[in-house]
Amino acid sequence: KVLWTSGYFIASCGGVTVDELKAYVQNQDRPD
Question: Which residue ranges make up each domain of the chain?
Answer without folding.
Answer: 1-32
